[in-house]
Amino acid sequence: MFMRSDHGLSNRAFFTGAKFTVYVEGGGGNDGASSLDAVFWSDIFKWLRPDIAITVVVSGGKPEVEKIARKVSNGDIDNTIVALDADFDEILGEKIDHPYIIYTYGYSIENDIFCFKSLQDGIHRILNYKDLSEEKLVQIYAHVRDTAREILPWVNFDFRLRIRNSSIFAAEKPGRFISTVSNGGKIIIQINELKKIYKKQIKEVDKKFRSKKPPASIVSTQSYLHGHTHQLLYRYLFSFAIKTLGAKVPVTDELITHLMLPIFCQNLSYSDAPIYLFYRNQLYNL
After folding, report:
1. pLDDT tens digits for range 75-94
2. Dihedral sign of CA atoms 215, 151, 132, 118 in order
3. By three-state DSSP, how is residue 188 classified?
4. 107, 226 contact by CB (below 8 A)
């Protein structure tokens, strides 16, 4: 009902007793469905702007949510905030510049939630280890670093496809090209599988666009690896860390999310790292 007109979009907040409706991605195109994006942005507002009453609404994929963002930018609707994954938008000059349109710092919410600092803090919480072995931490960090380096060229290939409206990582489930030696073992990047996916995707690109050069090189796997791929990578990295420390804990997407999202939110309030300053600047300017 609310999505049918600009008037409906503007007035949705009033019907829910909120100051703003915050539209986010996810839900498989079903208005009002649940998604990790909804949980993430709800928590961000609770930590940084508890004074603002909001209703978070899941509104489909990024193209659908961007349509609402453009209405906000054009002044067609009021009482509305739109929260989007950044993807490669900043590099490509495609970000919509408006105080009520907010973005993730990295490619997606997964890139911001799942990082080595959150992994390390998550291990402390789940294992109750006050002092982790420095030797083991170095071993874990080395595997995180080496895995990121190995997949970085393919993040750049993904960027090359992105400017041609295609993708490596979004085309297939990440389990096709990321695996482990054993449960909790070291991560294996299946390079041959990535090559096959890239060749298949580039063949489907119109020939006149194949020679189009990207405007920059990607230097950070953490910031720009496709979100769902990044989440699987960190689930495997967490399993590797747990096994390296000699513990036995079943690691699932739900477990790492429930551990790492609160850690991320707590850092929002006091850390001066660029990612946390980025979120504070966005929300304090609302």
Report:
1. 999 999 999 999 999 999 99
2. positive
3. strand
4. yes
| C-alpha span between 273 and 266 (Å, rounded) | 13
- Bridge-partner residues for 56, per DSSP? 22
* 129 contacts 245 by C-beta, under 8 angstroms: yes
Could you tell me the sign of the dihedral formed by the alpha carbons of 221, 284, 34, 267, in that order? Answer: positive
DSSP labels for 11-55? HHHHHTT-SEEEEESBGGG-TT---HHHHHHHHHHHHH-TTS-EE
122 and 78 in a common domain: no
**Domain span at 94:** 2-103
On whether the CB atoms of residues 1 and 34 are closer than 8 A, the answer is no
Amino acid code (one letter) for 85? D
Q: Does residue 238 share a domain with residue 188?
A: yes
Verify that 70 and 93 share a domain, yes or no.
yes
Measured between alpha carbons, how far is 26 from 38 in angstroms, rounded to an integer? 8
Alpha-carbon distance of 174 to 194, in angstroms, equals 10
Structural domains in the chain (count): 2
Torsion of CA 9, 11, 15, 16, to 10 degrees: 60
Sorting pLDDT into bands at 50, 70 and 90, what band is 38? very high
This prediction's pTM: 0.93
Number of alpha carbons in the 13 Å side-chain half-sphere of residue 271: 14
pLDDT tens readout for residues 119-178: 999 998 888 766 678 888 899 999 999 999 999 999 999 999 999 999 999 999 999 999
For residue 280, being part of any structural domain is answered with no
**Same domain for 145 and 235?**
yes
